[in-house]
């Protein structure tokens, strides 16, 4: 997996480059996010018929062939795992899609898809607001600072807030892959109890194990953390006062997976 984009070292003696304006950053971010949403829509064609049900069962969301959801957004966690992870020896849906996609080399569509293939699951902590737009966050297990652009999270997450998400890097900042959940130390402890095999690994290696994300998502569902999430279109992020807001889910139009929900 490629090294993610870290923040510029403030101790260098290079002439500082003027920060882009908020308008410029958000325009670029919205453009790239729309491309990501289209890729996620297309990748659904490369999921095995029962892939979402299988992930749903592993997260405790499915009984038989029926989903039982306390929050519609819990389903985004199953989609995330089905797209971005696979058992050892199996290919990921995002890679199968990439092999078939006919994209112009160097185009934004190709750049976004390549970044999505290198997306990383992480636990991040907010440090402060970025001077242009978004947040400065720390990927705590990889010990790297990053510039996160997400309109919903920018207005929802205060300093020191912790959040689990999958992110990818483009244009010097990172974006979420359309999914996430608030976390705390108790939830992480619960997650490790659900996947005790990860305790034999260092945190740096455990975070790269696909079972870590699965365990965190399962714990978040069991502990009710996903009930705090409200996915919204970027233009609407200031309209709802309650709940943790994220820019609109990449999976929002892909909810018909068979079976009923309550």
Question: Topology, pairings included?
Answer:
Blueprint: H1 22-43, H2 51-58, E1 62-63, E2 66-67, H3 74-84, H4 93-100, H5 108-117, E3 120-129, E4 135-139, E5 144-148, H6 151-156, E6 162-170, E7 173-182, H7 185-194, H8 203-206, H9 210-222, E8 229-232, E9 244-247
Parallel strand pairs: 8-9
Antiparallel strand pairs: 1-2, 3-4, 3-6, 4-5, 6-7
Number of domains: 1
| Largest sheet properties | 5 strands, antiparallel
Rounded to an integer in angstroms, the radius of gyration calculated over CA atoms is: 18 Å
- Work out the strand percent: 15-25%
What is the succession of H and E elements? HHEEHHHEEEHEEHHHEE
Strand order of the largest sheet: 5-4-3-6-7
- The strand count comes to 9
What's the shape? globular
List unreliable stretches of 5+ residues. 1-13, 237-242, 252-262
* Share in helix: 25-40%
Mean pLDDT: 86
* Protein structure class: alpha+beta
What do you see in this structure?
- The protein has 262 residues and is of the alpha+beta class.
- The protein has one domain.
- Helices cover 35% and strands 19% of the residues.
- The protein is built from nine helices and nine strands.
- It has a five-stranded antiparallel β-sheet with strand order 5-4-3-6-7.
- Strand 3 and strand 4 form a beta hairpin.
- Helix 1 crosses helix 5, helix 2 packs across helix 3 and helix 7 crosses helix 9.
- It is globular, with a radius of gyration of 18 Å.
- The termini are far apart.
- The N terminus and C terminus are likely disordered.
Task: Please give a quick description of this structure.
The chain is of the alpha+beta class and 262 residues long.
